[in-house]
Every structure is written in structure tokens, then in C-alpha cells.
TrEMBL record:
InterPro entries hit by this protein: MFS, MFS_dom, MFS_trans_sf
Entry membrane topology: Multi-pass membrane protein
Residue ranges occupied by any Major facilitator superfamily (MFS) profile domain in the UniProt entry: 68-480
Organism: Somion occarium
Name of the protein: Major facilitator superfamily (MFS) profile domain-containing protein
Pfam families: MFS_1
Transmembrane segments: 66-86, 106-127, 134-152, 164-182, 194-215, 227-249, 302-323, 335-355, 362-381, 387-410, 422-442, 454-475
Amino acid sequence: MSSSLEKSRARSPSASSTRLSDEKARIVRTENVDEDVEKRLTHEVYNAHVDVSGVDERKLLRKLDLALVPWLSFLYLLSFLDRTSIGNAKLYGLEQDLHISDTQYNIALTIFFFSYSVFEVPSNVFLKRLRPSVWLSLLMFLWGIMMTVQGLVHNYGGLLGMRWMLGLFEAGLFPGVNYYLSCWYKRSEFGIRAAVFFSAATVSGAFGGLLAAAISNMDGIGGKPAWAWIFILEGLLTVIAGAMSFWIIQDFPDTAKFLTEAERTVVIRRLQEDDQFSAAGEKLKWKYIWQSLLDWKTWLGMLLYMGSDGPLYAFSLFLPSIINELGYTATPANLLTVPVYVVACGMTCLVGWYADKKGQRGYLNMFNCCVGAAGYIILIASRNAGLSYFGVYLAACGIYPNIPNTIAWVSNNVEGSYKRSVTLAMVISFGNINGAVSSNVYRARDKPWYTLGHGIVLMYIGIGFICSVLFMVLLKRENAKRDRGERDEIIEGVNDNNTDLAKNGTFASVVDAKREKGDAWSGYRYTI
């Protein structure tokens, strides 16, 4: 079977809908197609018996958006608020009350990322095997309890234990929701939804500063200091949200109860037309896990995401302290973080929207890296509070948009339900483990300008830039090989005489080739 099915999907996102006729035309040319050959080339239509003529696709998309994105974004807001609120709590006497040093505080930040990273891959597999409404709700409920108890600790050991458990239960949300959303939307639609979902992190940054400033007024109530009340109240909010999520979070498209059968059918057919062949369901097989582990995109994607996630945690955990060292006290420092996060939120959504409309995620990644690098160069060189505060804005506008853009870029180039689940979890897990590094780079002895910390974050951004270039070059090279027919498979009864293609596999039909090979299928085109 010829693999020159279409031009790169990055240049022609709608081309998948005409792929079937292109396949037939190229293979048969002017010859007549017998019935057996046509069956081998025909794509299986999901729920062929269902009449979908009455479904308005635009209305259906809005229905999905309203049912999925707002609540999931709110959950991530709580997640990011819970993990980073320790930065706000530090300004209200956490270290003094628990009698811990700056090094011990950094260790408390670090230990969170170890449990968080280790549990992400198995959590995504559990999510696929179980119902999202059950798994995600359970995780939220449990981490809310851990967050609440964190406000009741009286010593360093208690703080470490709660940070470890918090990371364990929070681990499944971010990779799980990104994978979950990729099971609902086409590749050209996923980016803006991932950006809106992730922008909750920027909102949580703004909201966290305001909330911490407000809660600090409870200092001394019930014998608890202000930092303890920050943990307790935010934790209780998460417990309530986790309990509610069981009835609010929807499951996967093929079983979604808020859709009619015709709407479920349209959702899955749209995904299949977009080269998501596993959208109708896929049984867990170890070979799908191995496909992810042996794919170069998984490993390069891990380094690519590391270049974004390392700076993210350094920025979010230490922004209040950085502003504090510019000459502002605790509450003003928290309040001055708010406009930074608001601007970053707007930039994140703008990049997500533009990437879905125009593609070119690789170029956007490189542009964002340059903006972030400019911000940190200013922070390293500047000795002026106002100029440094401007550098903080540039850093935020470079770091935050790259997180969802990178995830969408990797996700859009991996096909196979379980393979994508494992790949996303590995990519995000490796990025998050670098939070253990970046949470230790801002040392008390480097006050007030934190030159070493800013330099290490700048190094991370450089790694992200280099990996973006490499990822894009390798994807283009692979697409070119498929355009030349070097990846074509043998389809029985169609091109059996092309024995030189046997190394690429022999399949009974195109459908079998798609199902078995996923994004390695010769007709699949990577997005740049």
C-alpha cells in the first residue's frame, strides 16, 4: 500500500476525512476494484447503524466543552493551589513555627515531587481501566485530606510525611486529565482545551496570593497560626470538590451518559477520521506499553517537557519570595504575584488558540523559550526592583504557555489509547521529577537576587529550546520517509508482490495495519 496518503497534517489538518478515497485512487489508479480489495481498504465505521444526520457538530462541541473543561480546570486550580500554597505559607511564619532551616524547607518541597512522579504512569493506566469519575474523584478526596492534615502538623517530620502523601494522590490528575481530554477532541482542537485547563495553574497563582492574604487575617484563631489556616481551608475545599466530582466528571465517549447514542457516535467517528483509530475502545495489551517505551518520541518528549516543567515549579514556588526580596513585605509580595499570573493566563490561552488554528507548535515552543530566556537574563543582570519585576512578567509569559503546548504536541503525535496514556504519563512524570531539582535552586544565601537559581532555570529553558528543534526536525524527516513510501506495509490481496515492504509488516487490511501499528502506520502524518 502506498504511504503517500496526504501532505503533512501540520499543513492540512482536514485531509484525514478524504484519506480513504485517496488510498483507493492511488492503489487502483484506473483499474477496477474488486469487492474483496475494497473491503481491505475500507475504514470500519463506528455504529454504522446509527443515524447521525440530526447531530449539529458545532453544538455538540460546545456541549462537550461545557461538560468537561470548566470543572476539570477548577480541579486543577485546586491541585496547583494545594501544592504551591506552601510558598505563600512560608511568608507567614511556617519555618519559624516548625523550627526548620532553609535547607529543610527545600527538602519538604523536594519530597513532594518524588511520590508525584513515581505514581503518574500507573495512575494513567488505572484511569483507563477504571471510570474517570471514580478514579479522579477518589484521588482528589484523598489529597484534600492530606492537605488539611498538613495544617495540623507540629514538626518537620509531620510536614515531610504530608508532602509525600500529597504528591502521591495529586499525581494522577494532570497527566490523567490531559490524556482524558485527548480521548474527546480532535488533534486540531485539543491544544486550546489543554491550554484552558492548564491556565487554571496561572489562575491559582493569582487566586492563591489573594486567598493567602485574606486567610492570614485568621492568625491566632483556634490557636492556629495563619500558615496552618491556609492549608486547612484550602484542603477542606478540595475534599468537598472531590466528593462532588463523582457525579460531575464524565466517563469516556463510548459510555458518556450525558450524550445521546447519536452524539456518542459522532464523537468517536470524528476521532477516527482524525487518525485516532483506538477511539472506539482498546483492550489492554502489554505490547501497547512496550510501543510507548520503545518510541523515540517518548524519550525526547520527556526532555522537551523537562525544559518547560523545571522552570515552572521554580517560578511558582518561589515567586512570592523573589518579590519579597525586591523589598516588599509578605502580603504585598503575595498581591504583586496576582497580575503576573493574570498576564500568563492570557498568554497561555492565546498560544493554545493560535496553535490549534495554525499548527506550528514547534515554532511556538521555540518562541516561548526565547521570551522566557529574556526574562531570566533580565533577572540575572538587573539590580533594579522595577526592572526585575518586568523580567518576572517575561519569564511567566515564556514558561506557562509552553506546558500545554508541549503536551498537545507530544499527544498529537502518538496514536493508540494505552500508548498515548503511558507516553503522556512518562513525559509529565519526568518533567515533574525536575521539580525536585528546581525547588532547591533558590537558596537563602543567594538573596536577594538569586543569581544561581535564575541561571539554572535559564539552563532548563535552553534544553527546552534545543529539544524543540530536534523534535521538529525528526518529525519532518519521518513524514518525508512516509511520503516516499519507505514505511509502506503489505496489505494482503492488494500489494503482495512488493516483497521489499515485508520489513514494515504484512496485514489483512488497512484497518488492521492502523490498529496494530498506531502512529507507526505509513498513512499517519505527524504534526509539526
